[in-house]
Amino acid sequence: MTPDLLEEGERRAKVYRERKLTGRTYSGGRAAGFGRPATAGEVDVTHGRILYLEDVSVSFDGFKAIDKLSLDIAPGELRCIIGPNGAGKTTMMDIITGKTRPDTGTVFFGSTIDLLRYTEPEIAQMGIGRKFQKPTVFERLTVFENLELALKTDKGVRPSMFFRLDTGQSDRLAEVLHTIHLAESVSRFAGTLSHGQKQWLEIGMLLMQDPKLLLLDEPVAGMTDEETVRTAELFLQLKGKHSLMVVEHDMSFIQSISEIVTVLSEGSVLAQGTLEQVQNDERVIEVYLGR
Ligand SMILES: Nc1ncnc2c1ncn2[C@@H]1O[C@H](COP(=O)(O)OP(=O)(O)OP(=O)(O)O)[C@@H](O)[C@H]1O
Ligand SMILES: [Mg+2]
């Protein structure tokens, strides 16, 4: 980790501690609702990191897809990940979400949750939401029904056939609808939406579960230019409230959202910095951006 990153982590940790204190003073605890910072809840981010990978490796039939990968993300950060095909970007997400077990290494959510000890559903439940490249919405349900379905329900207590949204849930649904630009399409069947709108709906479904960390794999692939611009706006709106890790090949999209960009190559971090810094890095030009 570079000194400026350490400094930034410290700064964010301080902001977090102050927020927490403010919360205690004025509201007596955790602020409820969609707008609360992603840092609240059970994930301990007092060390300024919501996700922490160290020396992670995984091989498939002797091929090292991930090779001593170390990377960390601050709470509320929007981290962009770029790199050539086969660099291990998707595999990294598979490891974070418990889909793939690494051979060696450490993966922590906050400073206390060892993700390697949990299953894929448990990790999702803890607040790590993942968006795969292909939209997976329920085409024969309306936009509203898709979002409603995505709500965390208290299954043991409330049988789903009697499930009704409480005020907080209705408010959240309305807020998410607005955020994903689908308020006007609430009664439409998801199958009739454009590709971009389906992608937003799926992001909305993730947001209904109030994830602390969102992993988005090539979210703008196949979108029109206009949809891509709106997605950039959406992500900028989400950062701060949530932590985001975005993998993309679309450099103009990366340009419009990026703070820190991490370049993966051959399963580990090749370079990291602002987009301008990594774009001017000879090694990055060599393996990815071309001359
Ligand atoms: N389950 C698996 N079994 C065997 N090989 C795998 C498996 N998952 C990934 N790989 C291999 O690991 C390497 C990294 O793949 P990965 O999909 O993570 O790359 P990527 O950076 O996401 O690439 P792209 O930009 O094309 O999506 C590739 O060579 C891939 O073939
Ligand atoms: Mg991939």
Would you write up a description of this structure?
With 291 residues, the protein is of the alpha/beta class. It has a single domain, classed as P-loop containing nucleotide triphosphate hydrolases (Rossmann fold), CATH 3.40.50.300. 37% of the residues lie in helices and 20% in strands. It is built from 10 helices and 10 strands. It has a 6-stranded mixed β-sheet with strand order 6-7-8-3-9-10, with helices on both faces. Strands 2-1-4-5 form a 4-stranded antiparallel β-sheet, with helices on one face. Strand 1 and strand 2 form a beta hairpin. It is globular and about 50 Å long. 40% of the residues are buried. The structure holds adenosine-5'-triphosphate (ATP) and magnesium ion.
Question: How many individual domains?
Answer: 1
Strand content: 15-25%
Helix content: 25-40%
The number of strands is 10
H and E string? HEEEHEEHEHHHEHEHEEHH
The average pLDDT value, as a whole number, equals 84
Q: What Rg, in angstroms, do the CA atoms define?
A: 19 Å
Q: How many alpha or pi helices?
A: 10
**Strands side by side in the biggest sheet:** 6-7-8-3-9-10
Main beta sheet? 6 strands, mixed
Name of the top-level CATH class? Alpha Beta
Query: Strand pairing plus helix content: what structural class?
Result: alpha/beta
Summarize the structure.
The chain is of the alpha/beta class and 291 residues long. 37% of the residues lie in helices and 20% in strands. It has a single domain, classed as P-loop containing nucleotide triphosphate hydrolases (Rossmann fold).
